[in-house]
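Let's sit down with a protein and look at its sequence and fold side by side. Please make up or recall a protein chain and show it to me in full. Label the sequence line and the structure token line clearly, so we can match residues to local backbone shapes. Go ahead whenever you are ready, and we will take it from there.
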Amino acid sequence: MIDDGVSAQDLLAANDLLGKGDYAGAVNLLERAVAEDPTDCSALTALGIAFTEGGEHSKAVKALERALSLQESIPEAHEALGCALYRLGKIEEARKELERALDLAPQDGGVLRNLGVVLDRLGEFERGSDMIEEAYRLNQFDYQAMYALASVRLRQGDLESALELLERIASEDAPINLKMLAIDHVQNLRRYLK
């Protein structure tokens, strides 16, 4: 029997666990996969994403840097590394990684959204909002892009447009964390607009 490293089935199972919010389960599965083949870039990248989603950003950085040391051109690893660095407060480093991800995947809505948020945080409001707008244009069911766009519109003072986006998040099948944030914002905006 030939051992071809981490199976696609393991990666799919881990992705399914991530989708269900079972970050610990995904990490457990992926750590076993990486232990079997420490050079599998797909498993290392997935592990880094699982760590980031589970709030273990320092561990994510280690896994993602390892993946990128083995193969430099993985847009998902650069994006996830940028997100982990952002959450660690390393905004300029996050920008660098997200810009590299954008170079590798210029039409990736997730990369555009995340880089737009970082640029917005760095005070590059116009460029950041343009990227968030483009991410939303590419996928109008990307609830994270929708929420980021609502935040931009709130900052710009376009309350009606922000309210429309937030009401959509609150009423559709959005991830529960975004849905709860949107409901809270909608209630506050409605009180303010009365």
Summary: The CA atoms of residues 94 and 129 lie 17 Å apart. The two ends are 70 Å apart (CA to CA). The mean pLDDT is 93.
